[in-house]
Specification:
Helix content is 45%, strand content 7%. The protein is mainly alpha-helical and 88 residues long.
Length: 88
Amino acid sequence: MATTKRKPNPALMKPLQPDSALGEVVGSKPLARGQVMKKLWDYIKKNNLQDQKNKRNINADAKLKVVFGGKSQVNMFEMTKLVSKHLS
C-alpha cells in the first residue's frame, strides 16, 4: 500500500504582510503564516513571556499587548486568532 504524502495547504504557504504592530515583533517582510507563528514563538521564548504556572498562557510585553488587542495575557489558541487580524 502506497502512502501518499500530505500536500501543504497553499493558503498556509502564501506570504502575508504583517501590519506595523505585528511587524515590531516578527519583522516587516511578508511571511507565510507558519513562519509568522514561529517568529512569534521565538520572540516569546527569547523574552521569557510564557506563563510559568500555565504554559498555555502568554504574558504580553508592550509590543505584544498591541498585537493582542490590549490584553496583558492570552492563551495560545486566542493568540493565533488575534495575530491573524494583523496579517493581510
